[in-house]
Design brief:
The chain is globular, with a radius of gyration of 16 Å. The protein is α+β, with helices and mostly antiparallel strands. The strands form 2 sheets. It has a 6-stranded mixed sheet with strand order 7-6-1-3-2-8, with helices on one face. The protein has a two-stranded antiparallel sheet with strand order 4-5. The protein has 6 helices and 8 strands.
Length: 207
């Protein structure tokens, strides 16, 4: 239905069905034959439809094995979309990518993350407001934690100079896949809602 109505209206009709889950625990059903050398990158940057769309569009042929939208950072087991939207479960709408570090670096993914959303608007992207839309990096190793802090500091100093970056940097906890209809949403519904804060800024390379 969202693909048939104006972009700004489709946001208010995001489906609330919660009966079809991709997985009841950590992300399941993703790309097969992923090598052991693959790494994960988990970020939150507002409505996960647009986040997934931009990362897939940019890195789909550049070392990205898989990308799943889902929920992380909360206190409730197996949360559904309706519950997460209340803001009471503590989860963020997020994207978890599996990538080939020999083709694309974790740092490159984080730099793109800081280009494609506004990290200075705490708990908000565009008109989407609530803790579920917060900006966050969920690291999977001490090396990722160090990289996240370094990239964040550089992005603050060189890119987002007019506001304070509010991005949380936290250890990745339990991941829950979002419902089936959320996966590849904008690929399947090209006229669907995309947060206006989600676009790639023309920043110079970080030094």
């Amino acid at each position: 239905m969202a693909s048939l109505m104006p972009n700004f209206l489709s946001r208010f009709f995001r489906p609330f069905t919660s009966t079809t889950k991709m997985g009841l625990g950590p992300a399941e059903g993703g790309a097969s034959n992923i090598p052991d050398t693959a790494q994960k990158c988990t970020v939150a940057a507002g409505c996960f439809w647009g986040v997934e769309h931009l990362f897939r569009k940019t890195f789909g042929e550049q070392g990205l094995y898989d990308a799943r939208v889902g929920y992380i950072g909360g206190d409730v087991n197996n949360p559904g979309y309706r519950a997460v939207c209340t803001g009471r479960t503590g989860h963020a709408e997020a994207l978890q990518m599996t990538f080939d570090p020999a083709v694309i670096s974790y740092t490159t993914l984080l730099e793109f993350f800081y280009k494609m959303h506004d990290p200075t608007t705490k708990n908000r992207q565009g008109a989407d407001t609530g803790t579920q839309y917060r900006s966050a990096v969920f690291y999977h190793s001490p090396e990722q934690e160090r990289a996240a802090k370094e990239v964040t500091a550089k992005a603050q100093e060189q890119w987002w100079t007019s506001g304070k970056i509010s991005t949380e940097i936290l250890e990745a906890g339990q991941w829950w896949d979002a419902e089936t209809y959320h996966q590849l949403y904008l690929h399947k519904n090209p006229g669907g809602y995309e947060c206006p804060a989600h676009y790639v800024r023309k920043f110079p390379p970080l030094s």
